[in-house]
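Lab notebook, bench 4. Still working through the backlog of constructs that have no structural model yet. Next entry is a single chain of 185 residues. Request: give me the structure tokens for it.
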Amino acid sequence: MKTNILVQYRGSGYDGCYWEWNYFYIDKQGTFHDIHSSGSAGIDNLKGALALIERDETHTYIYDLSNKQDIKAFSKETHPVHISGVLQWFNDNEDIEFFAVCSACGCRIDSCDDMIIEDKDLFCYDCYMAGECPCCESYIGQEGIVRVNPDEHYDHIWICIDCKEYHDGEREPDMFSGELREQRL
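Model written out:
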């Protein structure tokens, strides 16, 4: 029997949902832990877990938690909302090394309190803050943030290109620059 594994499989869904991802963990001693199971296909015991592993179905993924590469693979292949739930379960229930991986820099995230989910990406706090526009409060990514004059952009030093263009468009032209002269001609 495989131990110290996290298993992701298709369980039955809730009302109005055909199926949803379910998870269980078999610890090093071979004890079964139900992380999330739903509907008639949800597995809530060791016998059902072993039967699922033995069937080797297409949509069943087994991650060896003794292998950091498997933990990283789980973090890259799974939706961040599910990663957050599984990480929270491990933080609350087990004394085992489990972590998520930042989509931007690849660093380890050991706690749900240290991660931010944006669409289908999971970020560490530093990467998210480096790519968030403080003006519109949207995550743009570091490549979309530009340095600006704080006097012209509501005391912000870094903002997204869209906010910069918007602010630039709402300012009156400088009468000593060539802009005003060109408008009169």
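Notes after review: The first strand starts at residue 5 and ends at 12. The beta strands are 5-12, 19-26, 32-36, 60-64, 100-101, 108-109, 115-118, 121-124, 145-147, 158-160. Flag for follow-up if needed.
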